[in-house]
Amino acid sequence: ADRSTKFIRSRSLSCEIMARFLAILLQGLLVVSTADQGVPAVQKVIQMLENMQAKVKEEKNADEVAFAEFKTWCEMESGDLKKQISENGQEIERLGASIGKLGSEIKTLGEEIGTVHQEVASHEADKKQETEQREKDRAAFLEE
After folding, report:
1. Residues 21, 52: contact at Cβ < 8 Å?
2. What's the pTM?
3. pLDDT band at residue 5 under the 50/70/90 scheme
4. Whose CA is closest to 53, among 27, 26, 10, 21?
5. 6: which residues sit within 8 A by CB, 6+ positions away?
6. Are the C-beta atoms of residues 64 and 51 closer than 8 Å to each other?
7. Distance CA 84, CA 90 (A)
């Protein structure tokens, strides 16, 4: 993101320089048209244009370097992202299979828990019935 911001700022700066160039050119033309000297004013405008051209070339080079860095970064990130997407896709498949397996285990264990609850309830009922029967037998024994 930092490199892309740098690249965008660089482009904005180039537009700003072009606007300044046009303003200087217009000022130079006004000076040339109002000056009686002629040649020195024209030479001054030519010098200003040459300076502006040098600045534009420097900025172009800086823009090209910034863009090359940004492009390299994008290419590197693209490769990393493709690798991560592939790895994450495999992880999703693995986790999906695991979820399916665990889902069937949950169902099986739930059924087993239900069976155990029924058995416990049955044993509790048997225990209660046996306890009542023992108490009756004891009471009958004590009466004899």
Report:
1. yes
2. 0.41
3. low
4. 21
5. 66, 70
6. no
7. 10
